[in-house]
Amino acid sequence: MANIPNRPKPPVLGRGSYSEALRIGEILRKETVGGALLVAAALVALVWANSPAADSYFALRDLKVGYEPWHLDLSLGAWAADGLLAIFFFLVGLELKREFVAGDLRQPAKAMVPVAAAAGGVVVPALIYAAVNWGSAEALRGWAIPTATDIAFAVAVLAVIGSHLPSALRIFLLTLAVVDDLIAIAIIAVFYTSEIHVGPLLLTLIPVAVYAFLAQKYRRFFGVRPAAAWLILLPIGIVAWALLHASGIHATIAGVVLGFTIPVLRSKASGGPEAGPGLAEILEHRFRPVSAGFAVPVFAFFSAGVAIGGAEGLASLLTDTVALGILAGLVLGKPIGIVGTTWLMSKFTRAELDPSLKWIDLLGMSVLAGIGFTVSLLVAELSFGLGSEHNDHAKVAILAASLLAALLAAVILRARNRHYHRIEAEERVDADRDGIPDVYQQDGSA
To answer: Which NCBIfam families does the record associate with it (predicted)?
Structure first.
């Protein structure tokens, strides 16, 4: 029998396609601005909530606005968590679909490792939190708090400390966070829905179906360049959101569902038959600035404000297993889960780390993934309720863990950034006339 030559192993954190690198780079630039606004909003809320004018902050957060018969008599804090955050989750749905339809993750060999790493980065922090809080049924309700990664916050830190890191690491971080968000969405839908009202839930299917039909047939209704399609789809999406909110399921899930209904075109560069902007690109262009520049910062403003209570408050925080579980889950559990899962994948599958990268690079990115902010704050409120002691301690622990993860990642990645900066200076490759760097053409990924 003829000997069959061994095929080379597909690299973990490989370079990917040039079109994907350009797209991810554009997303990261937008998220960097949003991350800076998010951090600023959280700092303002934290300072205000611990100032002599703290009562005015909590009065503003708890101010009710809305129409009660439609189950929409909500506080401003609840509007931010249930309403504005739906815009963020709509973009998560768009990004997920785009990654698996037109991005590099449409290839199972490339999708396998980051998806598995994201799962490890969810499971291990949850297990650590559960181990710390074992025996307390009330505290265990927060097991999902340390499972999320905040992409906007993490990218803002990465932009400051990692300007010369390989694009593969940046793509890995974004992919990790997107899959992480998908898992968090599933957790919220399954474990944090206490009561379901069947009538509104069934009615939700009507606007979702209309929305999906118009989205799929958008060229027929809105022309070749449907710049105004969002003006028609937005009111329908709001109706779907309101009905899902009335059903008892967290309303942010509506954003993800609607995002999944938007068609994604595969360009010729990615092996598809069509080129040019599609509805997914147009809606992302319209709503990403709203999400990063307004929705998420406003949510952070209303969610991050917590009265620490001085030295006595910090002392009670350090004795609360909820806070300790969150700190351990985000700072230790995330890197252990991500690096450990990736290492197991490299040992027991055909995947291996790209030769141009080192395991210390992956460790730095995994520590950076311990920045859990937006979704972690949301899950904390769903777990313990707004204003409860556990929720206040959870908020402080999320802020502290995110800051500690950012500092630790900065120590690791700054050193690696200098290393890759030297490599760029020594081995700079000029682009050809077509504008595509030679390195992408040599391995056929352009």
So the answer is: NhaA
Q: How many domains does the chain have?
A: 1
Are residues 113 and 352 in contact, defined by beta-carbon separation less than 8 angstroms? no
CATH code, domain carrying 287: 1.20.1530.10
- Mapping DSSP to helix (H, G, I), strand (E, B) and coil, where does residue 179 land? helix
Buried b vs exposed e over 180-199: b needs ≥16 C-beta within 10 Å? bbbbbbebbeeebeeeeeee
What dihedral angle (degrees, nearest 10) is formed by the CA atoms of 369, 375, 378, 380?
-30
Can you name the residues that pair with 12 across neighbouring β-strands? 353
Contacts of 41 (CB under 8 A, 6+ apart): 297, 298, 300, 301, 304
DSSP secondary structure letter of residue 80: I
Q: What is the pTM of this model?
A: 0.77
Within-domain flag for 302: yes
* β-pair partners for 75: 64
User: 233: how many CB neighbours lie within 10 A of its CB?
Assistant: 22
How would you classify the pairing of strands 352-353 and 74-75? unpaired
In a domain, residue 322? The reply is: yes
Residue matched to tokens 């929305």: 211
Looking at the domain assignment, is residue 186 inside a domain? yes
Contact criterion met (CB below 8 Å) for 11 and 355: yes
CA gap 366, 5 in Å, rounded = 35
Query: Which residue type does 289 have?
Result: P
* Strongest mean pLDDT among 128-132, 275-279, 387-391, 441-445: 128-132
Between CA 275 and CA 176 the distance in angstroms is: 27
Question: 251, 86 in Cβ contact below 8 A?
Answer: yes
- For residue 44 the two structure tokens come to 């303002």
Beta bridge mates, 352: 11
H or E element that contains 74: strand 74-75
Q: Which two tokens stand for residue 31?
A: 């998220």
> What is the distance between the alpha carbons of residues 414 and 170, in angstroms, rounded to a whole number?
14
Count of other CB atoms within 10 angstroms of residue 432: 11
Strands 352-353 and 11-12: parallel
Residue 199 lies in a domain: no
Query: 74-118: per-residue pLDDT in tens?
Result: 889 888 888 888 898 888 888 778 777 776 667 776 778 888 888
DSSP 8-state symbol, 64: E
